[in-house]
UniProtKB/TrEMBL annotation:
Protein name per Swiss-Prot or TrEMBL: EamA domain-containing protein
Species annotation: Asparagus officinalis
PANTHER family per the UniProt record, alphabetical: OS03G0707200 PROTEIN, OS03G0707200 PROTEIN-RELATED
Gene Ontology cellular component terms for the protein in this record: plasma membrane
Region of interest (Disordered), ranges: 403-425
Its membrane topology: Multi-pass membrane protein
Entry's transmembrane regions: 105-123, 135-154, 192-210, 241-260, 272-292, 324-345, 357-375, 381-401
Lineage: Eukaryota, Viridiplantae, Streptophyta, Embryophyta, Tracheophyta
Similarity-based family: Belongs to the drug/metabolite transporter (DMT) superfamily. Plant drug/metabolite exporter (P-DME) (TC 2.A.7.4) family.
Pfam families tied to this protein: EamA (PF00892)
SUPFAM superfamilies reported for this sequence: Multidrug resistance efflux transporter EmrE (SSF103481)
Domain EamA: start-end pairs: 108-231, 244-397
Amino acid sequence: MMAMASSSSSSSTWIFHSKPPKREISHFYLNESIRIKRRTQRLLIVKCSSSLHEEPPVVSKTKKEKVKIDEDLSLTVKSSTPLKGRRRRSPIDLWKRIFLASKKVRSIILLNVITVIYASDIPVLKEVEQIVDPAFFNVVRFTITAIPFVPFIVKAREDSQTRSAGIELGLWVSLGYLSQALGLLTSEAGQASFISAFTIIVVPLINGMFGATIPSLTWSGALLSLVGVGILEYGGSPPCVGDILNIMSAVFFGVHIFRTEQISRNTSKKKFLALLGYQVSVVALSSAFWFICRDIVSQLLQLDTGSGSGSGEWSSWWHWMVSFPWIPAIYTGIVSTALCLWAEMEAMRDVSATETAIIYGLEPVWGAAFAWFLLGERWGSTEWLGAALVLCGSLTIQLLGSTPEKSSNKKGDRSSNHRNSISSNDQKDFSLLTVVVKTKKNDDELFRKRDKL
């Protein structure tokens, strides 16, 4: 009787004062949460066992909603349980994810490798020009480059867009290589390497002319590199015609970089080999045309002066075949031309033309290093100062960044886009913790829907 009186008094107190009994309510929620957790675990165990031992059944239209609720319940239990048995990531794994996950980082690394290979061209060409005529060497070099791409050209002969784009890129590369080869006749290899850094100014100027926004950091790094080139030119050997030709070569290569970015981003990867084949074929034909025209002019001059028999250099064709430097021709034709042009086109799908030109600004550093080790060329303090400025300008852009990465809708980015859409749609259900926080109301609704089905 006393207990009943106390319970009635407590209930009357709760009714009059509107204060719910804390102990009874907390006990009710505790039992309810335990019941929900056990029920979801039983459902998950049954679902996992059936999926392991049996094939997934064909889901009809009436059961789609039921299956979706089961998946939501399994996700809830899976996310609410603590992660066990997983290995903690080491700092090495973190750096691997940073440098290997981003396509742009891989492209930047690839462009730096291309820069080293391009820089090795200059001392090789400098030595070859003392053995054989540079015009004839370019004919053999680019013919070797074009031979492997003949099947791809034949396969894409009806694609007018690829053909016109490849011919255009080939013309710009031809002018650049021809100017570089003629400029090295009178200028030093190390100095020619640093003059080629003028490309880092040409590309931002062209981008600005076509309406692109160039960040101030990019202009500061480019101007710093240009000042370094000016100091190097002032402190080196006296200016000559070769320096002007090297500057023209930098301009032509800058236009080629700009157009390569535009064409590579509007061309499928399947057409890259055909595009590259047209490009190197145009370079080979232009080199052969230049060599034939120059030889004809020299023979006409010999006939006018009466100092030759008219046979000219054609009589020594066999001697050229025997004494020709085939190893440098194969290296410059296959490695530093075909392979580098293909890698450049692949990398510039993710890196802008301005960034590519500034990365190529490191070519003088590597070219001077090759000239120092292979040719024995030495510098003074002024030349080292100019080299340091060029290096600082290029590294400033690479380390601090110049332009943001452009958005792409490629097939390879579907997974990342899917993850982004999930995170934006389910943002209310996610937190910074590893456990997904869901309210009791959501779980009760799922169970009610399942019971109705």
